[in-house]
């Protein structure tokens, strides 16, 4: 599967500096955190040797190293292929995850290799705002991770997404030696994104309800014109897409909480609480936080579902108002055409007789007025009129029966092939 990645994924050498975060703890010492940026020529060396020099005589109890990579608009990873291959091999992430990366598969994945105490866990997460892949070495409690933020998720830029994720990591860094540390931090960061999206779309839907006058919020302004309805339809389309993304993201977070049993995805809907008893272990407290997050996300899903129904209702209303505007415009056009037709009918008899009396076969200054060649006019006029009427009727029948003839042709074609 990883071969598909190397055949399909495009890389682009970049002169940009790469952001690296490192959190570490020595035995019986406080947690240290450091973030630096490195040019491409020293990146691999720094990652392998640590961005902060490990002190001699101290035993490293746990470590987290996080590398940020970006993509350009052509979906190219902004790093050399050889450098990425070397980093990925050093991090020890399951090669199958490369297949998920190149396919940009949405969701989460967890693989476990080796013995319980000596093996490696690999994780993959692709959410609406970022892609995150990491490995956790159970014996040494070392975590190596790569984060690839999206160029933009309509809320933040790539740099903004990364900054918010780092902020979440900082608030939870005392748990970083656990395999589910990045998993929990991702859920916390994404739950905040859910709050932002649902709040923004709620305001947008309220404003649309005010303008359409179909909903809980009614405006005193005049009804929207056709041009404004088009703009409103674009806004409601964006709201529908954003809410659908948020719904999918909520499902992903619930599944992510269930990985490693951090929080059951089939838990009850009762109000969970955090036990602040200091005698409880950090792992037990983290699981309580996860249970609380599960409840909050489930409730948020209900809110999103409610907003989706309101957005869908407004979509139907806007479509109806646009159709009504089109119908009124067509009615005005039809009235104008009717006036033109009536005016034409009024002038047609006079035009006909003026033309008829002007033909050379009528001699108004002689007796008789009708000459012997007048029959030529009658012979050509009557057949031509009948021919045009027959042609019109035939063309109309062809348009009516064409679909049936096409179906009949397909049936005959299948019978011939059999």
TrEMBL record:
Keyword Membrane: yes
Top-level taxon of the source organism: Eukaryota
Gene3D superfamilies according to UniProt: Magnesium transport protein CorA, transmembrane region
Transmembrane spans: 339-362, 374-392
Keywords: Membrane, Transmembrane, Transmembrane helix
Protein name: Uncharacterized protein
Organism lineage: Eukaryota, Fungi, Dikarya, Ascomycota, Pezizomycotina
